[in-house]
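Hello forum,

I keep getting stuck at the same step: I have a sequence, I want structure tokens, and every attempt I make locally crashes halfway through. Rather than fight my setup again tonight, could one of you with a working pipeline run this one for me? It's a single chain of 138 residues.
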Amino acid sequence: MIRIPQSIIDGIVAQAKNELPNEACGLLVGTENEVVKQFPLTNLDHSPEHFSFDPKEQFGVLKEARAEGLQIIANYHSHPESPARPSEEDIRLAFDPDIIYIILSLQDIDNPVIKAFSIKDGNVVERVIAGEDPQSPQ
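Reply #2:
Ran it on my machine without issues. Output:
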């Protein structure tokens, strides 16, 4: 399971809608499986079917996360016109088996779907996303 506050999920959706028709992308940082911060990144491909992180931005996130005692625990990108599941290219380019891959589908713009996956050696396993704020009373 990965815990993502609703405010961050809302931020990912807003970024993805704002960057249409292209894919949006970014990194999520936190501790273990709890996200505390979203870092929207530039999609250098400027494409509705591909994304590439800006290496300078990516390194800046890593530095900031380490300085705050946090780690990069997930990356995310949007699929403007396809389902929230890893494409063949997403699976092929999933080089880090320890990170969680978040995919947001805007196929139905009024009903975005966000899903999380672990991808190791080409094997895809869907992870549960808990969307409530961690500070909320139980």
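The chain has a mean pLDDT of 93. If your local run keeps crashing, start a new thread with the error log.
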